Protein: DNA 3'-5' helicase
Amino acid sequence: MTPQNVAADPSAHVFVTANAGSGKTSTLVNRVARLLLRGARPEHILCVTYTKAAAAEMQGRLFAQLGGWAVMVDDELSQQLAKIGEDISAENLTRARTLFAGALETPGGLKIQTIHGFCEKLLRRFPLEAGLSPSFKILDDLEAKALMAQALERLLTLTDAEGVHGDISGRDRLIRTLRVANFEKLLRQFSMQHEDILESVAALIGQARDKGISEKEYLYQSVGLPEALSPDELTAQLLGRLNWGDIKSLAQSLSISKGKTDQERGAAFLELHEQYLNQKPVDISTLINVFLTAKGELRKTYYTKDVAQTDKDYLDWLAPIVVEYVAQHNAARIAEITYDVLMLFMDFSAIYRTLKRRSGALDFQDLIVQTRRLLHQTDMSSWVLYKLDGGLEHILVDEAQDTSEDQWAIVKALTSEFFAGEGASLKLTKAVRTVFAVGDEKQSIYGFQGARPDKFLETRQFYDMAAVSAGQVLKIPELVHSFRSLPQVLGFVDAVYDGDPELSYALTFTSNVVRHAAVRNDIGCIELWPQVMPIDADDTEDDGTEVDPVDKTGATPAKRLAQQLAFHIKSEIASGRGVMVKDKWRAMHAGDVLILVRKRDALFENIIRELKQQGVPVSGADRLKLSEHIAFQDIRTLMRFAMQSGDDLSLACILRSPLCDLSEQDLYDLSQGRSGSLWGTLLQKPSDDGRFDDARSLMQWVLAEAPRRAGFDFLARLLNRRDRNGLTIRQRFLTRLGPECEDVLDETLALALKGEGIDDIGVEAFLNLCEFNASDIKREQEEGGERVRVMTVHGSKGLEAPWVIIPIGPNFKSSRNDDLLLIDDDGGLFVDVKPERGKVDAITRFKDAKAEKDEQEALRLFYVALTRARDRLTVCGYQGKRAGSGRSWYGLAADAFSRLPVGEVSAVDMALRADFGLDDPGWAQVMIYGARAGTYVADEKSVRVKSPLPAFLTAGVYGEDDPSAVWRAVSQMGDDDRTETERSPSPLAMQKGLGRYRRGNLIHKLFEILPDLAPDQREAVAIKYLAKQPDLDDDQRAEITGAVMAVLNDDRFAEAFSPKSRPEVALAGQIGVNGRGEPVYLSGRIDRLVVSDDHVWVIDYKSNRPAPDRAEDAAIDYQRQMAGYVALLRQIYPKAKVEAALLWTDGPKLTPFSDDLITVRLAELSR
Structure:
């Protein structure tokens, strides 16, 4: 039996440890299929995934497998069942074919969802048991930020009576201690890391209670102080410990010493004595300066040889006391500040909870916390578990290494009865209940989201002990064979982590050597390029924090590496370098390349830019920070100008942007020598100057529209506004900035829409919203496209590619290292405030421990990057002016080459000009393990590296806000020509219970639904439908039913309701140009459309009474309406004869339109 089949055994508890590419998802899907095959009910199975995308993929795979079983012949199905370890009896074959239908028919569908999705569903089912409002809502990021902003504002005005502990004096002390800048930084951290801080605070409070001490005492103990003495109390304790008579004698003795330094120290001691004697505040720093340097280190000597021995002895006795005091004072200061921060955060969190409760809302962390609380309440948990569709019998956890402690607590609660035998479902059915988890601690890279790989291993031990106690067995198979990567890729991965036991420990938390095995046996290729080095002293881009300014001379290492990569990728595509896909070789295309970076820095931006410069199709950034994208900034700048037309800088930026697209020279010509504002100058430009006409027209429109529009309305109209060439503003953005701009524009519109959901905001309010609430956009970059994907390693989890490139810059520094409040999951909580001198050992140890964890996660991150490659892996990098800290990925790769089989590694000279596009005739030595694939004849799609914008991005859209367009609804074409009294009202319009258009609407609805029914069912359905309309009386229902049935039962109208007809067909389009040269657009909805090979029949129902006998006698707006329909349909069906008619329910009768009448009314529409 294969390890995969052991793991998928539905009768056993299983915890699977799986290498990258070893088929974790397939194993999980096979287990679900085998559970269903063994008789498990779909509603009793819960699959917990890490992301929604993973849940969708898993469900898709499962349905594909079950759907395949449903239609397979016996022999093929038998092979499939045998392959996964199942019996191939006739009974099993029959059952396998029914599983797909059973899964589809399961109420609510299969439970394959994220932990947050499961928690939300559970809480919505048991809101009262959880103490929640039944109609609670889930806050999105924007709403959560808005509530947090309110909480922060409220926090600053909080009074003592309103604080959690009745005292908010700590807030004022913090403002004085931290100063304004650091205090604001702390508040930002409260908001941005609220969930993480909350978890740390909860752990701290829990540990303090376990020890039976207060939070303040716990904080003092955590910095190494046995008592919670304040810094002032420690100072008083030190002063009380000194013998002031001895201090005076020492001061006098040092004052008469020959050495100047001794005399100065004597004066310092004398000043201390006088301060203490006169009960004045003692400047303790005077004493500290005698013994410690500015860095807080003990001086090598604090007296000269001329000092008397007795004085030397006293100073030697006093020195360690002062050193101890400084250490304790620093620690107490940190503990005191941290306690104030703790109290302030608890006040902030309480305010935030109150705001959420008042709005009946939960954030994502609340889903986990509330579910954990619900399932751990002994009086509720059994009831809740019992009511979960009769009980959960099988729970499967995917990506278990990324599951947090709180999430594991929920899973443990759900599976608690699996090993105790108390579940009601188990009692009744005697079914085997199982828990399954699959993960890879080597791929745990989400520590910043609370993932702890050590908890995965601890949980495995927990279930192992639980199984043993219950007389059951927990299987722990290992999946080591990779179906993804070639042997050379896996061999290189093993070599990278072979050099040091610490490397293995970072991956597996053991000293065991990491080993992989390949299922595929082709030859792969690993390349190590030489690092790109700085050229001169000005080449200082070594931290990757900025993109080059446009006027900077020379190329930085990051830019030069990006240029080489882009050129080489283009060359490889053009040469037809081979890749194997589904066991077949073909020429590669851009979509076969995946470039992975550690962070989105200058290197990341340069790679995307250089690929575009080379004409290589590229997907753009995998995640966009909305506030930093140029398109968003352009729109924000436009709104600033709309609020203040005298803002010359904003207008200049707009004119250079895709909004106006003026050149630098145009802007210079406009600005140079002007005497007034830039806007005033633009207004004075001649109207025949084509460069400025569109810009002036757009700005005039903006100034007119912005004050009177809501944010979303204004933006939607702006983006759909056309220029003189017919391009919309959206299209201009896309043409200049690329397809990724589409996501930015859509997210900006979404932000405006969300803002209106919170409050009715105008452009100015939306501008403020943009300044503080711009979010990140995650752009999905799945396989299957034909564009190079450039993303962070974190974003690549679960992806793969034939060719993976890992460009490596100087070592990464986490932004979390700059946090003011240091936290961890174990209750560690410190404010990182630098003491006046010296350091706090507890904080140093905390930072060192955190740095070690970060280093281990960085090594796991490199593992994830390496294992994305199927066939080819390229490692390259650049160095900056300053060397990085910690282990370098490039260094690890270089060391690994020294441990690879000598006969399989070669040094290949590659031409700098031909292979990397450099203006240099020299050569670069590239280390290669394995061999590159051959070249193949590339098809046209692969060779074409210059990718135009997709057609749908530049296609015209009807109804856009073209200032010259006339936009009308054909159903109201005559409204401006007719008075209310001229329109034909329904005879029943004024009857009790029936509004002006109510009768007509009901008749239209019945004509929509009844024709699809059998003739003998129509009248009964009509009577039933009208009986549900409470505003009708019996006479009205009978009259409407009779009118509708008279039409449907008339053979003259059979074609109108035949299978070739369609109801409620929407139309929109341009029918011509009016006398002023303006395009005329029409939109409407046809009641009934009949289409045959050479004939199109458009019919509209009318319920007016009395009905006219001829179309010419119908209301003028009806005639124009039908003419508009005919004009649009003639464009859609140019080879068919298009005719129109009105079907009157009074009679009933049909009044067709002649071609002459259509022509006359159509001309009127274009006036």
